[in-house]
């Protein structure tokens, strides 16, 4: 007699369907948790864009009131460079960022590099205009942080050009350092912007509630811009 073939044993966690074995569906609790996290991150991203727009409009209004033409150029160039272009360059890789969600990753990398190069160039030009017109620009806290942002922006510009030309070589330590420098650049620039709003306290921003609101908006916009990038840096470093 021929031996009766044994029935193959199946993993109890495997579900058999017509197309083959598949993993069991996620539990409702995990699905609800991921949906809640997605909603929170989308809300943070929307608030970040609104706050960025708020501080851009506020800075431009103050630039129009300012008398010195070089100071107007300084505000316009730096705000365009840091807040509009470089902040959006960071948000390009945010998976919850609305306008860049459907863009493929290779295109995102090129777009990030182009926005970073353009933003860095404008910010460097804006800082150079102010430094050329104001003697001893480091006498204020705003000037000190602005100069720190200027130096880091030069490094970011070099990194952005390298990233655009040698995209496939931006791996490991180079990518980690590039991300760290980018975060420090925006942090220094936004601190300088907040200090710039604080210096307006005795000029056009009256009462102090307006100044405090603009400073708080700058800080919250910075946090919303960098929260995902800092999380990726931490996970990459701990991996």
Automatic annotation (TrEMBL):
One of its GO terms (molecular function) is metal ion binding. Its cofactor is heme b. The keyword Zinc does not apply. Keywords: Electron transport, Heme, Iron, Membrane, Metal-binding, Transmembrane, Transmembrane helix, Transport. It holds the Pfam family Cytochrom_B561. Residues 1-28 are annotated as: Disordered. InterPro entries: CYB561D1/2, Cyt_b561/ferric_Rdtase_TM. The keyword Protein transport does not apply. Its main location: membrane. GO terms for cellular component: membrane. Residues 43-239 form the Cytochrome b561 domain. Its EC number is 7.2.1.3. The chain crosses the membrane at residues 36-62, 74-93, 144-164, 176-197, 213-234. It is found in: Membrane. It is a multi-pass membrane protein. This is ascorbate ferrireductase (transmembrane). It comes from Trichoplusia ni. The lineage of its organism: Eukaryota, Metazoa, Ecdysozoa, Arthropoda, Hexapoda.
């Amino acid at each position: 007699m021929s031996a009766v073939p044994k029935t193959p044993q199946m993993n109890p966690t495997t579900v058999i369907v017509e197309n083959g074995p598949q993993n069991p569906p996620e539990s409702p609790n995990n699905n609800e948790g991921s949906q809640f996290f997605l909603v929170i991150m989308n809300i943070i991203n929307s608030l970040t864009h609104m706050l960025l727009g708020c501080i851009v409009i506020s800075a431009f209004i103050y630039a129009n009131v300012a008398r010195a033409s070089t100071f107007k150029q300084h505000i316009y160039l730096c705000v365009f460079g840091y807040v509009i272009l470089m902040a959006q360059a960071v948000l390009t890789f945010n998976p919850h960022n609305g306008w860049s969600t459907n863009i493929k990753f290779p295109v995102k990398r090129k777009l990030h590099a182009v926005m970073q190069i353009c933003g860095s160039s404008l910010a460097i030009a804006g800082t150079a205009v102010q430094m050329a017109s104001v003697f001893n620009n480091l006498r204020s806290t705003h000037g000190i942080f602005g100069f720190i942002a200027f130096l880091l922006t030069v490094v970011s510009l070099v990194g952005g050009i390298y990233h655009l030309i040698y995209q496939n070589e931006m791996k490991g330590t180079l990518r980690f350092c590039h991300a760290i420098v980018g975060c420090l650049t925006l942090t220094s620039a936004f601190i300088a912007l907040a200090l710039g709003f604080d210096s307006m306290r005795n000029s056009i921003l009256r009462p102090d509630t307006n100044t405090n609101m603009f400073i708080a908006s700058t800080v919250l916009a910075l946090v919303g811009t960098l929260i995902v990038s800092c999380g990726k840096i931490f996970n990459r470093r701990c991996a």
